[in-house]
Design brief:
29% helix; 5-stranded mixed sheet; 4-stranded antiparallel sheet; 165 residues
């Protein structure tokens, strides 16, 4: 996959999770010039949705500036290969200081339209709702099998999206 198709894949993944959570995006009027090229701002959810092809996270500082300007959280969709199963998401939380999660995988199942799950079991799982991102006190699955099934559903949804289905 070349850079442009990686960018298209990241945009498609970002829009897919936005659609799952029924996020609403309104035009931002009087927005200053920003250092990031593509983004969607869901004002009511206080969420910035950013597709990215930079797997090293070098765009995090620019996204952090935009998060601070809008006073919102961020969800970055990253695509760096032809395999949809390699699509990753990163959560940025706005607060007293900016917090960036480890790369997460899409998990589909109960309790929320979409979850973003890091590889390390002690890290926070984030749920995406139409009102924004929320950290989960308890993971949304009850068994390892259910956890793997949710990852498979997420990967299948991304693969179908990338294949144009």
């Amino acid at each position: 996959m070349n850079h442009y198709s990686n960018e298209a894949a990241a945009i498609a993944a970002a829009l897919m999770v936005a659609r799952l959570a029924a996020l609403r995006f309104e035009p931002d009027v009087d927005v200053p010039m920003l250092k990031i090229r593509n983004y969607l701002h869901a004002r009511t959810a206080r969420l910035l949705l950013v597709p990215s092809t930079l797997s090293d996270g070098s765009d995090a500082a620019a996204v952090g500036e935009v998060m601070a300007a809008f006073g919102c959280d961020a969800l970055m969709a990253r695509a760096d290969g032809a395999d949809a199963r390699r699509a990753r998401f990163t959560v940025g939380l706005h607060g007293h200081r900016l917090f960036w999660s480890a790369p997460t995988r899409l998990w589909l199942g109960a309790a929320a339209p979409a979850h973003f799950v890091p590889n390390h079991p002690d890290d926070t799982v984030f749920a995406l709702f139409s009102v924004g991102l929320r950290g989960c006190e308890v993971p949304p699955w009850s068994s390892d099998e259910e956890r793997e099934d949710g990852f498979a559903l997420g990967a299948d949804a991304l693969a179908a999206l990338m294949a144009g289905r």
